[in-house]
Amino acid sequence: MTDVNPVDPERVGSEELEPTGPRVTDKRRLDPETGAVRHARPGFGARQDQVAAEALADEAEEVAELVVGDEVHPDTTLAADLTRDLQRLQAEYVNYKKRVDRDREMHRDLAVGSVIEALLPVLDDIHLARQHGDLEGGPFAAIADKLDATLTKIGVERYGQPGDPFDPTVHEALMHIEAELAEGTEGTTVVQVLQPGYRMGPRIIRVARVAVADPQPDPQT
């Protein structure tokens, strides 16, 4: 019969009775037996805040390295120079685009004006034919109307009507005659349009050539 040595009560709880080998720590958030959420260990959140604070301190230190006292870091100076260069190039491009658009519009107006000047004799013949009634009901009337519509579409306007106040900037007086004007008319007035004028926007292609008359003085005055 084998004798079993009794456990010495003095040795209970001593280091010799503590289990040896690897220790396993359960770090799961949920308790596998109850399913309840385990509370974080004391000080765990504080350590996270400390880590975040240290990261912010590192970023602040990196930014502080760019400016030391009154001296600016070379990288900051280079970035500012490149930004100014980019802004200057952008402004130059905007000005260039505006100038090109303006020149394109001006060249278009010059080209259209040159074509209208070449067509002025034809337009004058159409105007005379319309004044004499030669275009009423004839097949040529449709062609004249289409030509007028095309001129309007490209921005060309025919002007000059009897009764218009005489304006030397847009009229050329070829004749000064005596004629009865409407009551209340003041100043020199167009009484006959010899050749209509043509303009495109503010540009005058040809002034209207007209005959004008002055209002008659009141005999009672």
Descriptive account of the structure:
- With 221 residues, the protein is α+β, with helices and mostly antiparallel strands.
- The protein has a domain at 107-213: Roll (Nucleotide Exchange Factor Grpe, Chain A, domain 2).
- Helices cover 43% and strands 16% of the residues.
- The protein is built from 3 helices and 8 strands.
- It has helices at 44-66, 74-131, 139-153; strands at 67-68, 71-72, 156-159, 171-176, 189-195, 197-200, 203-206, 208-213.
- The strands form 3 sheets. A 3-stranded antiparallel beta sheet has the order 3-6-7. A 3-stranded mixed beta sheet has the order 4-8-5, with no helix packed on it. Strands 1-2 form a two-stranded antiparallel ribbon.
- The protein is elongated and about 110 Å long.
- It starts with 43 loop residues before the first helix and ends in an 8-residue tail after the last strand.
- Mean pLDDT is 75; it is low at 1-7 and 9-19.
Compose a concise summary of this entry.
By secondary structure, the chain is an alpha+beta fold. Helix content is 43%, strand content 16%.
The chain-level mean pLDDT equals 75
CATH topology of the domain at 107-213: Nucleotide Exchange Factor Grpe, Chain A, domain 2
Characterize the overall form: elongated
In spatial order, strands of the major sheet run 3-6-7
- The radius of gyration over CA amounts to 50 Å
User: What is the class of the domain at 107-213 in the CATH system?
Assistant: Mainly Beta
Beta-strand proportion: 15-25%
The biggest sheet amounts to: 3 strands, antiparallel
Helix and strand pattern: HEEHHEEEEEE
